[in-house]
Design goal:
single chain, about 0% strand
Length: about 160
């Protein structure tokens, strides 16, 4: 088997990335569906620790922690990723006002709606009424944040 010339393999990279992203998204969506995280009542039951608490999503959280732990161990052993030139991992985490405020808004939204972004998008496949209004609102909020960041960047330069 002969090696693929660099220019030919570089041309295939965007298509391979798209296939990998699609496969990852499908696997993630299937996992959310199997865990019933696309049902806001299930999530709200998990978040209701002072009421009728449903701790079953702790198993989902535990599974995610194990997969992430093993994934990072594999990343540490590789010199470079398969579909990019380098790994894009943050060296450090700076906790600032924007991070804390964003986390609070995320948590409030999750607690009020029973959805976070991944399950909300996956719920569109079930035509859940809540997701049909939540996802556009979420996209509008993301767009406003990008617009504000671009505005601040242009004002400071």
């Amino acid at each position: 088997m002969s090696a693929i010339p660099v220019s030919e393999s570089a041309a295939r990279l965007p298509a391979l990335r798209a296939v990998a992203a699609l496969a990852s998204g499908l696997l993630f969506g299937i996992g959310l569906s199997l865990a019933r995280m696309v049902d806001p009542r299930k999530v709200l039951g998990f978040l209701d620790v002072l009421g009728d608490w449903d701790p079953s999503l702790l198993f989902v959280l535990g599974g995610a922690v194990v997969v992430a732990f093993l994934g990072y161990r594999l990343v540490d052993r590789r010199g470079a990723p398969l579909l990019d030139l380098r790994f894009h991992v943050r060296d450090g985490l700076r906790v600032d006002r924007r991070l804390v405020l964003g986390s609070v808004i995320f948590g409030l939204g999750w607690g009020l709606a029973g959805y976070c972004p991944g399950p909300a998008i996956a719920s569109l496949g079930y035509a859940n009424p809540e997701a049909l209004w939540l996802v556009p609102a979420m996209l509008a909020g993301a767009g406003l944040q990008r617009w504000q960041a671009a505005r601040k960047a242009s004002a400071s330069s």
